[in-house]
Design a protein that fits this description.
By secondary structure, the protein is α+β, with helices and mostly antiparallel strands. It contains six helices and 20 strands. One of its GO terms (biological process) is RNA catabolic process.
Length: 397
């Protein structure tokens, strides 16, 4: 299918069909353009992109502490969509394509992009043929020196990289919404937990048994899908298929936890080799909690301590002789009650230091809690002496 031009006005197209590298930095946001634009640099008509995720329990797929990828779908900005747009590129060898072009993406998909029937290859072929071939910026004519199947590699690379920014399990867990065979949840609670992290409403779907099983994250894109900027946006199309109350979020029976992000209590802490030996920290990392010489969980987005969920990602920014910390919840500070808190209401972030092993506040590496949290319980972390003494270490990512 040849590259298309979207004509919505009189302005001339500003991108050559040379692939994403040739796209102008001031490319319009998809679904918002009012002038003509080369669809190698502006996805159209499918300018509303959805990163969709599964929670499969019967049979279970993927790690017990992570959702899995369903797909990356282009919708037409109004809830309608095209599908199976180019039969000539309905590739039937996705595994081989990725083995040659993106082996690390393939390895990740083998854990996090699973088919509940057990036929991952068939599932990947379906997602590419139905949805990937309808992404205009991935058409072969949009590439300079196009190599066969490279657009499929770009599709799976982008879907995986986007999925990695959407830790649904962690976001729900941080709000006390965890898989359970007995507890049920309300749609408003689930939606609030996800919206607080993503910034916009998420489409929450359930099966006919009121079981939570799918999430849709909505985006518009500035530039090409393979290298442009994905901006979260308001959902379009059909709403949630879940009831307002009584939603089941069942555990995954017989599945394993993910080695990369699971918090394992009472195990020896291994610090990333990129962790500095002292001074100010910089970049992204996890804040692991250590008690009595053993790692017991980590700090999550709000600044509380959790032992059974997924670590939050913090950004350390040098400030003076130390650094400040920010999570998805906002800036982090020590409050007037001596509690560590991260929130959008924090206006002045606290400056911490690092002694090569532990996080320090006012020259001390000692932090405290009233108890060691278990299950979905979160514990407040204090700088004033309390029952449980703990250290906080940095693991760069």
């Amino acid at each position: 299918m040849a590259a298309r031009y979207l004509f919505l006005g009189v302005a001339a197209a500003r991108c050559a069909t040379a692939g994403s590298a040739a796209c102008s930095a001031d490319a319009p946001l998809s679904c918002h353009n009012t002038t003509s634009y080369d669809t190698c640099c502006l996805n159209a008509p499918g300018g509303h992109l959805l990163l969709t995720q599964f929670w499969d329990t019967n049979p279970a797929t993927g790690p017990s502490d992570s959702w899995t990828v369903h797909g990356l779908w282009p919708d037409n900005c109004d809830g309608t969509y095209e599908s199976n747009c180019d039969a000539s590129r309905a590739y039937t060898n996705i595994t081989q394509i990725l083995q040659a072009g993106a082996p690390s993406t393939l390895q990740y998909m083998q854990t996090y992009w699973k088919d509940y029937h057990g036929n991952d290859e068939s599932f990947w072929e379906h997602e590419w043929s139905k949805h990937g071939t309808c992404i205009s910026t991935l058409e072969p004519s949009c590439y300079t020196n196009y190599q066969a199947t490279q657009e499929a590699v770009d599709f799976f690379n982008r879907a995986v990289s986007l999925f990695k920014t959407l830790p649904s399990y962690s976001w729900l867990s941080a709000a006390g919404i965890v898989p359970s065979s007995t507890t049920t949840y309300t749609l408003s609670a689930i939606q609030s937990a996800l919206t607080a992290q993503f910034g916009y409403a998420v489409t929450v779907n359930c099966n006919s048994n009121k079981e939570l099983d799918e999430l849709w994250y909505h985006y518009n894109v500035q530039g090409s899908v393979q290298s442009g900027t994905f901006q979260p946006t308001t959902p379009v199309g059909s709403g949630s298929t879940c009831p307002s109350t009584g939603i089941k979020y069942l555990p995954k029976p017989g599945s394993v936890t993910s080695a990369s992000t699971t918090l394992t209590p009472a195990t020896t802490l291994t610090t990333a080799t990129s962790t500095p030996t002292g001074g100010a920290l910089s970049g992204k990392g996890y804040l692991n909690v250590v008690t009595s010489g053993s790692q017991k969980g980590c700090i999550i987005g709000a600044g509380t301590w959790y032992t059974t969920g997924t670590c939050a990602t913090f950004t350390a920014t040098p400030s003076g002789s130390g650094f400040t910390l920010t999570s998805s919840k906002g800036k982090c500070a020590i409050s007037s009650s001596n509690a560590l808190t991260c929130s959008s209401s924090v206006t002045a972030a606290t400056v911490f230091t690092y002694d090569g092993t532990n996080l320090n506040y006012s020259g001390s590496s000692s932090f405290y809690a009233t108890s060691v949290p278990t299950g979905s319980t979160q514990a407040t972390v204090y700088t004033a002496s309390n029952t449980v003494s703990l250290k906080i270490t940095w693991q760069a990512i």
